[in-house]
Each structure stands twice: as C-alpha cells, then as structure tokens.
C-alpha cells in the first residue's frame, strides 16, 4: 500500500513537471516569434476589395494612405509608433502605440494619446499575424461594412534595426 502511494505521488510529480516544461517551451517559442517583430518596418502594400471605402484604425484616412507608413516596434517594453507621411488626401500622423502578440498569432495594439497610460486605454485593434519571416510579416484584419466583413491585409517589410 505504501509503495502504491509513493508510485502515485511520483507519477503525479512527473506529470506536473512535464507539463511545466511544455508550457515553458511554448512560451519561449512565442517569445522568439514576437522578437522577430523588433525594429523598423514599412507597409509595402494594403490588399483589400477596393469596392469598399476602408479607413483603418480610426485615422480618417483611406487604407492606401498606410502604404509607405513607418512602424517602429519595440517588444521589450511593448511600445512603438506608426507614422503616415501625408500628402494628397492623406493626413500626416505620428501615433504612439502599445502592442503585444497573443497566442503567437494575434497582434493587438492600442493607440496612446498624449498623457494617457496604457492601463487606462481600454479599446484597441486585433489583427491576425500571418506569413511571418525575420524580415517581413503580414497583418490581417476583418472590418464589418454594410453587413459584410471586409478582409484587409497589411504587408510589412523590415527597413532597419533587428
């Protein structure tokens, strides 16, 4: 009986310790993918059904205004910014953000207004991270419009700092 209790205890410890290793390994893999996003990136193209008028991220600017925009992502403190160059019908914007990658494939960010703290900003944007490499990635967003979802894909390429 004593041996049975000891065997059960050892089995339980092995189960707990193995699951902890698996969770740590998964966490390290997610962190490695997350760190690939460190640096300076430019949106090289925005793909979507052009029959819709799309104005992403509440900037009041057409999605094509984001082509050529500069994004700086600093994962060690989850901060960054994006800059729209302006010109034509496109506004000139410098927008600080706080971001994170959740579950390895959800890029979530919120716009930081001057004087605001990240914990007090409750609304933001959730995009799906796809086609990630060391020097490029795409973010996919679905926006409801007139009862339909419009799929938008933002294609990023590294411009500096790894």
The percent of residues in helical segments reads 10-25%
Strand order across the largest sheet:
1-2-3-4-5-6-7-8
How is the quaternary structure best described?
single chain
Structural class: alpha+beta
Strand fraction band?
35-45%
Overall pLDDT score: 79
Helix-strand string: HEEEEEEEE
Report the uncertain regions. 1-30
Q: Number of helical runs?
A: 1
Q: Specify the overall morphology.
A: globular
Distance between the termini: 59 Å
Task: Work out the number of β strands.
Answer: 8
| Sheet with most strands | 8 strands, antiparallel, barrel
Radius of gyration: 21 Å
Explain what the structure shows:
With 162 residues, this protein is α+β, with helices and mostly antiparallel strands. The protein has one helix and eight strands; from the N terminus they run H-E-E-E-E-E-E-E-E. An eight-stranded antiparallel β-barrel has the order 1-2-3-4-5-6-7-8. It is globular.
What secondary-structure arrangement, pairings included, does this model have?
Elements: H1 2-35, E1 39-47, E2 70-74, E3 79-87, E4 90-102, E5 106-111, E6 125-130, E7 136-145, E8 148-160
Antiparallel strand pairs: 1-2, 1-8, 2-3, 3-4, 4-5, 5-6, 6-7, 7-8
Keywords:
162 residues; alpha+beta; eight-stranded antiparallel β-barrel
Brief summary:
The protein has one helix spanning 2-35, and strands spanning 39-47, 70-74, 79-87, 90-102, 106-111, 125-130, 136-145, 148-160.
